[in-house]
């Protein structure tokens, strides 16, 4: 958690409490570490660099799964330094106002939850309390002109749609003395709406609530506000954001990114608001208490003794009823959820089996495609043995090697059929710890024969101490063979001396390893690239369109991900990412 330098306010604590409650109710264990930013100059200087160095050393032995930034300054810090301190770690932000959407370029690869203020509801509240209002002045103190313009346009459009003669002005940051003089001379048909109040002005740093109170005390007209922090500091009230709901939404987004760090980026907007009014300001401006909306909270209301007692009795009765209803409801929901989970598991098993049976035609084609290579190798070896016998010059060791190849290819074809038959049964594919480097080494013989046939040079680069993955070595070997075979065929138009097939393994992420197969052929046309993994889709005159579809199916069965892209200098690269076996990292 990256926090601004200021001491956390009650509003911030309310958001965090709701967020931590979401974490505590989750089955996923979450450990939260917190850092507070130092104040910096613009642009950031040596102090920030010192902080970066300190944080990097502090967490050098910790694995961080997610970075969460509170507010604009924390987001700026993450955008500048996140990749330096925590490379490739997902990040998110919260407690940013929705107007930032208009002027701020959205962070790349960073998810977040904005806070959206309900202009329409606040405008309706002002007109209900002040039916004679004809002029609304909005205070937007921001260093971003785009934000000021967007907020003015939004409020002006709503006001015009609500009442044709309702005029809206928006004022930006100005010296405090000038602002106080301005609000003191406003006509009575005017209302002030505080959107953002800057606490750093005239070379002096104020507390925001001090500035809001000063404006309210000097103002000749009522002051309204949309932020929880303004309540109790001189504003009449407003439709303010539900900070607890915002905290819950931020917590749910954090759990989503922890479960799926490669997902996103996701952008959400918190829009749930609640009406809050200050009875002291209602009495100050002489508003009729009877016109106050019933759903408005009145935290500063002082009821009579009878009202206090009556409310306690009603509250106690309602609380008892609600508790009983909640207990009953939770029990009922729990039983319903358990039944739903059991039914969902049963249906998932049945649907998975139906899907396998529905793919019989596709699997038949895949079997033909898969055993074509070992059967072709058997035929080639048999032809070689026949030629040697006809020539009556056949060293015994060569014949023995040919017969051994025939036997190995026959066994491989049989094993492929056995593995594909598993897909038609209700049981899952059996997997065990497998070394991806051993799969590549085991395939060298067959890949060497293919390379000789296509006049291709194979370059391998295998990472040392590569962790094991959970999988099926035969299926993984088939993935490698299919990709290598396609790559060699793709380089037919390249001069033989320039045909190179690269096979590499990498381990840049503690939880994942990669298999990379690259060629220097002509590449894949961009209009074909999105369809290459579809079954029966092929650009080859004699192709069946099953090779890459099988690769995709096998990779998915191993909880992996396959990406493909054309190289800038020509050729195509396939990158397959597999999760590391948990107990064999």
UniProtKB/TrEMBL annotation:
<dbReference type="InterPro" id="IPR004358">
    <property type="entry name" value="Sig_transdc_His_kin-like_C"/>
</dbReference>
<keyword id="KW-0472">Membrane</keyword>
<keyword id="KW-1133">Transmembrane helix</keyword>
<dbReference type="Pfam" id="PF00512">
    <property type="entry name" value="HisKA"/>
</dbReference>
<protein>
    <recommendedName>
        <fullName>histidine kinase</fullName>
        <ecNumber>2.7.13.3</ecNumber>
    </recommendedName>
</protein>
<dbReference type="InterPro" id="IPR036097">
    <property type="entry name" value="HisK_dim/P_sf"/>
</dbReference>
<feature type="domain" description="Histidine kinase">
    <location>
        <begin position="366"/>
        <end position="582"/>
    </location>
</feature>
<dbReference type="InterPro" id="IPR036890">
    <property type="entry name" value="HATPase_C_sf"/>
</dbReference>
<keyword id="KW-0547">Nucleotide-binding</keyword>
<keyword id="KW-0902">Two-component regulatory system</keyword>
<dbReference type="InterPro" id="IPR003594">
    <property type="entry name" value="HATPase_dom"/>
</dbReference>
<keyword id="KW-0597">Phosphoprotein</keyword>
<keyword id="KW-0812">Transmembrane</keyword>
<feature type="transmembrane region" description="Helical">
    <location>
        <begin position="310"/>
        <end position="330"/>
    </location>
</feature>
<dbReference type="Pfam" id="PF02518">
    <property type="entry name" value="HATPase_c"/>
</dbReference>
<keyword id="KW-0067">ATP-binding</keyword>
<keyword id="KW-0418">Kinase</keyword>
<dbReference type="InterPro" id="IPR003661">
    <property type="entry name" value="HisK_dim/P_dom"/>
</dbReference>
<keyword id="KW-0808">Transferase</keyword>
<dbReference type="InterPro" id="IPR005467">
    <property type="entry name" value="His_kinase_dom"/>
</dbReference>
<dbReference type="GO" id="GO:0005524">
    <property type="term" value="F:ATP binding"/>
</dbReference>
């Amino acid at each position: 958690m990256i926090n601004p330098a200021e001491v956390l306010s009650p509003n911030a604590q309310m958001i965090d409490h709701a967020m931590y409650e979401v974490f505590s109710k989750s089955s996923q264990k979450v450990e939260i570490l917190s850092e507070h930013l130092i104040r910096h100059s613009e642009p950031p200087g040596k102090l920030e660099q010192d902080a970066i160095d300190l944080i990097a050393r502090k967490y050098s032995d910790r694995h961080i799964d997610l970075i969460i930034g509170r507010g604009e300054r924390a987001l700026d810090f993450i955008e500048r330094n996140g990749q330096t301190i925590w490379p490739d770690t997902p990040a998110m932000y919260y407690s940013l106002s929705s107007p930032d959407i208009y002027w701020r370029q959205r962070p790349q690869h960073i998810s977040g939850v904005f806070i959206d203020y309900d202009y329409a509801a606040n405008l309706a509240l002002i007109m209900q309390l002040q039916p004679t209002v004809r002029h609304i002045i909005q205070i937007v103190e921001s260093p971003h002109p785009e934000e000021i313009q967007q907020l003015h346009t939004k409020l002006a459009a709503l006001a015009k749609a609500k009442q044709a003669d309702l005029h809206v002005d928006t004022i930006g940051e100005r010296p405090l003395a000038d602002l106080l003089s301005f609000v003191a001379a406003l006509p009575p048909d005017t209302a002030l709406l505080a959107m953002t109040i800057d606490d750093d002005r005239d070379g002096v740093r104020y507390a925001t609530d001090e500035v809001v109170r000063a404006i309210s005390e000097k103002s000749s007209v009522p002051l309204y506000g949309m932020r929880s922090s303004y309540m109790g500091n001189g504003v009449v009230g407003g439709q303010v954001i539900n900070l607890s709901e915002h905290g819950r939404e931020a917590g749910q987004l954090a759990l989503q990114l922890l479960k799926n760090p490669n997902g996103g980026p996701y952008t959400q907007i918190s829009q749930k608001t609640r009406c809050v009014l200050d009875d002291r300001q209602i009495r100050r401006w002489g508003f009729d208490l009877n016109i106050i909306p019933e759903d408005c909270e009145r935290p500063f209301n002082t009821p009579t003794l009878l009202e206090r007692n009556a409310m306690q009795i009603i509250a106690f009765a309602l609380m008892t009823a609600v508790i009983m209803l909640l207990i009953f409801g939770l029990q009922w929901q729990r039983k319903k959820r358990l039944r739903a989970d059991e039914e969902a598991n049963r249906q998932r098993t049945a649907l998975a089996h139906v899907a396998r049976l529905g793919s019989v035609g596709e699997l038949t084609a895949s079997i033909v495609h898969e055993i074509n290579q070992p059967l072709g190798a058997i035929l080639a070896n048999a032809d070689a043995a026949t030629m040697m016998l006809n020539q009556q010059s056949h060293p015994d060791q060569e014949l023995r090697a040919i017969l051994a190849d025939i036997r190995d290819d026959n066994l491989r074809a049989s094993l492929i059929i056995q593995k594909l038959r598993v897909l038609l049964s209700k049981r899952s594919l059996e997997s065990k710890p497998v070394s991806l480097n051993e799969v590549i080494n085991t395939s060298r013989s067959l890949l060497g024969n293919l390379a000789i046939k296509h006049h291709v040079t194979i370059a391998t680069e295998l990472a040392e101490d590569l962790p094991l993955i959970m999988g099926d070595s035969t299926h993984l070997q088939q993935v490698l063979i299919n990709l290598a075979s396609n790559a060699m065929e793709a380089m037919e138009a390249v001069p033989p001396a320039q045909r190179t097939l690269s096979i590499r393994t990498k381990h840049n992420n503690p939880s994942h390893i990669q298999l990379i197969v690259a060629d220097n052929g002509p590449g894949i046309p961009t209009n074909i690239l999105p369809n290459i993994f579809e079954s029966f889709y092929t650009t080859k005159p004699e192709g069946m369109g099953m090779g890459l579809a099988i690769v995709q199916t096998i990779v998915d069965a191993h909880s992996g991900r396959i990406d493909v892209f054309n190289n800038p200098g020509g050729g195509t690269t396939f990158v397959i990412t597999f999760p590391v076996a948990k107990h064999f990292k």
